[in-house]
Specification:
single chain; alpha/beta; ten-stranded parallel sheet; 11 helices; globular; binds S-adenosylmethionine; binds 6-(5-methyl-2-OXO-imidazolidin-4-yl)-hexanoic acid; binds iron/sulfur cluster
Length: about 325
């Protein structure tokens, strides 16, 4: 057992809220090493200080442009290199708006649109901007994830009414080139800075199960928490192993290690929504409940993620009912 039993120090969570505070990797690693009950208690305490613990935000997700991506992210079905997904063209604006209406009827409050691009071309950005305008007009929050942005593009998205831009750091800067070689961790940080500067809220998190160590996980959490300010929304994905990708046969992350990561995200980013993201379909109700207790307060609420299936609204409604959770 690699846990130690230091006293639960709640005062350090107040210190972490002081302006200019930066997390070291060792400090985050020390959180991971707490006995699970101490870690969960501490995460739940931070959670209750910042959120209603019985409320969970729900976003729907749609792939507006699937496959054929020039990037080589080892986990992704949409890279042109792995031939795991058929390449499709950019969806029509009306098709996307119809999907958003359907999601709104089911109770989603935010609509996320994802495209498998290294980054958008100007013409593509215009079409996506129109999608944003029309989804926004339905009264939903909007989010897009389009890859790296060039100067001026974030401002155009802001003008169209974009609320959130998703761009994950995905993994520790030091581990990044073991998983992705076609762009760098610094490129990701740069796009996040452009998004923030344009006044768009940042959604940035990571993915577990890439073969990273606990230290890599702690480093990724520290790198997210030390973005100034921390992302408004932090998706934590559990690898969905996709046949044909280099990570198709990777060993699964232990459930408690995943819960510890949610708790570490909650403690280090007290005011951010922490999203229990990809991989939920393979989780039991009890595992999801433990993630909510550890501070997750957002989910993807839809039958499909981008190319893989998700739990679906009925099972979610059932679980919310059993746990007494309210959707926001
Ligand atoms: N191309 C854009 C990008 O890379 O930012 C947007 C789409 S990309 C699919 C969004 C995120 O989905 C990735 O950053 C990664 O965290 C997550 N993701 C991709 N494939 C996944 C998989 N097989 N399992 C779990 N999460 C995955
Ligand atoms: C995020 O962090 N996870 C979502 C969303 N942002 C775009 C995507 C999950 C993708 C899971 C694999 C797939 O469906 O292809
Ligand atoms: Fe392309 Fe994004 Fe998939 Fe990487 S994660 S291959 S950038 S769609």
């Amino acid at each position: 057992m690699n846990t130690v039993s230091p006293a639960v120090d709640l005062t350090s969570d107040a210190a972490a809220r002081a302006p200019g505070f930066k997390w070291t990797v060792s400090q985050v690693e020390a959180l991971y090493q707490l006995p699970l009950m101490d870690l969960l208690f501490r995460a739940q305490t931070v959670h209750r200080g910042n959120f209603d613990p019985n409320e969970v935000q729900r976003s729907a997700l749609i792939s507006i442009k699937t496959g054929g991506c020039p990037e080589d992210c080892n986990y992704c079905s949409q890279s042109a290199r792995y031939k795991s997904t058929e390449r499709e063209v950019l969806m029509q604006v009306q098709e996307v708006v119809d999907a958003a209406k359907e999601a709104r009827e089911k109770g989603a409050t935010r609509f996320c649109m994802g495209a498998a691009w290294r980054g958008p071309k100007e013409k593509e950005l215009e079409v996506v901007s129109q999608m944003i305008r029309e989804v926004k007009a339905l009264g939903m929050e909007t989010c897009v994830t389009l890859g790296m942005l060039k100067d001026g593009q974030a401002e155009k998205l802001k003008e169209a009414g974009l609320d959130y831009y998703n761009h994950n750091l995905d993994t520790d800067a030091e581990f990044y080139d073991q998983v992705i070689t076609t762009h760098t961790h610094a490129d990701r940080v740069d796009t996040i800075a452009q998004v923030r500067q344009a006044g768009i809220k940042v959604c940035s998190g990571g993915i577990l199960g890439l073969g990273e160590s606990r230290r890599n996980r702690a480093a990724m959490i520290a790198q997210l928490a030390n973005l100034d300010p921390a992302p408004d929304s932090v998706p934590i994905n559990n690898l969905v192993a996709i046949p044909g990708t280099p990570l198709a046969n990777k060993e699964k992350v232990d459930n408690f290690e995943f819960v510890r990561t949610i708790a570490a995200a909650r403690i280090t980013m007290p005011k951010s929504f922490v999203r229990l993201s990809a991989g939920r379909e393979a989780m039991s109700d009890e595992m999801q409940a433990m993630c909510f207790f550890a501070g997750a307060n957002s989910i993807f609420y839809c039958d499909k993620l981008l190319t893989t299936s998700n739990i679906g609204a009925n099972r979610d409604l059932d679980l919310f009912d059993k746990l007494g959770l309210r959707a926001i």
